[in-house]
Amino acid sequence: MPPRLRWHVYFCALCMQVDYLIVGQGICGTQLSWHLYKEGKSFVVIDEGAPVTSSKVAAGIMNPVTGRRYVRSWRIDEVLPFSVHTYEQIELVLGEQLLYKKPIIDFFPSPQARDQFVNLIAEDDTYVHTYPDQNHFNQYFNYDFGCGEISPTYTVNLALLLASWRKKLVDSSALREEAFEPQELKLHQDGVTYRDLTAQKVLFCEGIKAMDNPWFGLLPYSANKGEALIIESEDLHNGHIFKKGMLLAPLPTKNTFWVGSNYSREFETVTPTQEFYDKTYTHLTNWLKVPFKVIDHKAAVRPATVERRPFVGLHPHFPQVGILNGTGSKGTSLAPFFAHQLVQHLVYGVPILKDADVARFTRILAK
Q1: For residue 262, is pLDDT > 60?
Q2: At what angle do helices 158-171 and 27-38 cross, to 10 degrees?
Q3: 267, 285, 305 — which closes off a domain?
Q4: CB burial string 262-281: b at 16+ within 10 A, e below
Q5: 84 and 151 share a domain?
Q6: Does residue 265 fall inside a structural domain?
Q7: pLDDT per residue as tens digits for the range 212-246
Q8: Are 106 and 212 part of one and the same domain?
């Protein structure tokens, strides 16, 4: 039987006192509250429960390589095993399967791309591998130049994680389902107050809303819109993630798949576009040999950063205020690792990695 969550919340005549106030319950806010729970700290999460967020639209893929050149993702040798272990721990508490090991089958777009992949295997085969049966996927896909395998790779059921953890927060009176109003936050020498709440610190995990945050809005964000189609196919193989120009990942619901995503830094609307739908549908028609139908079309804006490094830590001029944000498209793997970093810093004073510590923007945040 999974252990019960215990938060120690202290009440006084006029206020509720906790160790930390967390703003946002996306992947960063969820992971931050999880690691605070592990340390036995009390907290309240404020989140209005918006139906469309980048965490809810994402496929939850943890991929150790990135880009067309299959470059190792930043700090992946540390990040991936830590994040896998974290999701396994959360599974035990929630009693739900969240983590799925799904190798990526990468269909090469050209002979040159195939040769490049083979050369990479010769140099370092930690994450890239040959696939023994090059014709294995012929009944499902059109591909002319063979395929390779990227592993270990994983998908995380983010929708289930966010919903199940939210229920635990509600059951423990640790969630305020409301919009956060920054003008009502008051900073004091020894902490913060927000309406009837008092806390040692407030920690912002707001996603894209952080661009308007009074304390962290000057950070170098790079808003990045992504879109995805959800398709249904009874005949499509679901044992792998597939890649050919875009990713096709199986979802926990039987016969459903996530297809995407684009990475648009210039966009006129945050809603799904006909352009993406048409382009992706045509791509799937040419790629898949089996029937499929589109059952949903989603879009959201990710809180990416110019440096492609997250913002983690306490405000250099207001130590009562902290942040965990900017994980971008790697949020599923980066959020557990850097939530742990921030909590270790808060509880034990352990330094945050310099290339993630928000203190690197001390000058900007002084304005």
Answers
A1: yes
A2: 50
A3: 305
A4: bebeebeeeebbeebeeebb
A5: yes
A6: yes
A7: 999 999 999 988 888 999 999 999 988 999 999 99
A8: no
